[in-house]
Amino acid sequence: MSNWTATATATEQAEIPVVPSARINSARVLVVGDVMLDRYWFGDVNRISPEAPVPVVRVNKKEDRLGGAANVARNAAALGAQAGLLCVVGHDEPGERIVELLGKSKVAAHLGRDPDLPTTIKLRVLSRQQQLLRVDFEDAPNHEVLLTCLQRFTELLPQHDVILMSDYAKGGLTHVMQMIAEAKRAGKPVLVDPKGDDWDRYRGATLTTPNRAELREVVGQWKSEEDLHERVRKLREELELSALLLTRSEEGMTLFTETQVVHTSAEAREVYDVSGAGDTVIATVATMLGAGVPLVDSIVYANRAAGIVVGKLGTATVDYNELFA
């Protein structure tokens, strides 16, 4: 176990005001992107296989959770927002399981169904709370289904306050440039959880939320904090990004805007599992923006939420009472 810290210089963690639940309940967040089913198989290891030097896991428990963009939407809904999800899944058992879990999570599902697409699955095998293996099953959706989703996006846009693009490079955001342009014309803030080194497709977004590795793919390795600030400034100006939030694991988070750089450090917490923490961060920011909270303050709430979720196993959520406890 390690310490995961994340710090608010502008607002002290203990002093952040409670946002009334009615304001959060009024926030309407549309999540668009790549969804997946996170499958967990738990078991005991008591021997090594005679076929190869690998542990044999006797599975005694199975659990399914929403992953990718579905986990982002689930996080927004857990906080109390009106969360919608636009995505593509297959006509298969994992796709039906995603539909079922979305219903239980109170997420409004707007799903394109691709009969030829195997729904993305991340299968994790664990023993004694340690992950031993992950197996991925995935493919890209077909063009016709993606065009249908683009049309559906246009229909859903007026019904939401904040648009959130959750990119896992699985093909679900093929038309992200058109979506961002449409949202901007409609005056809606667009938040992007980016992937890969081609950020031109996110041009004009309100906020991107890369981690350190994702940002390095785009701007290269920085030599100092001043160098980092300069590289981010150039990136923001080149791509017309209003703001960039860099999540820095144990170093916290840094928000870069045209007028300021705000670093947020949080109380230290014992880390159990960091998977899905980025989903919690961007979902919390989107929810708070939808509730009328300024961006700088939204980051502080997101930081607190991330500090809570890393203390849970696997992709998890933070609810309203936990955030404001």
UniProtKB/TrEMBL annotation:
<dbReference type="InterPro" id="IPR011611">
    <property type="entry name" value="PfkB_dom"/>
</dbReference>
<keyword id="KW-0808">Transferase</keyword>
<dbReference type="InterPro" id="IPR029056">
    <property type="entry name" value="Ribokinase-like"/>
</dbReference>
<dbReference type="GO" id="GO:0016301">
    <property type="term" value="F:kinase activity"/>
</dbReference>
<feature type="domain" description="Carbohydrate kinase PfkB">
    <location>
        <begin position="28"/>
        <end position="317"/>
    </location>
</feature>
<protein>
    <submittedName>
        <fullName>ADP-heptose synthase / D-glycero-beta-D-manno-heptose 7-phosphate kinase</fullName>
    </submittedName>
</protein>
<dbReference type="InterPro" id="IPR011913">
    <property type="entry name" value="RfaE_dom_I"/>
</dbReference>
<dbReference type="Pfam" id="PF00294">
    <property type="entry name" value="PfkB"/>
</dbReference>
<keyword id="KW-0418">Kinase</keyword>
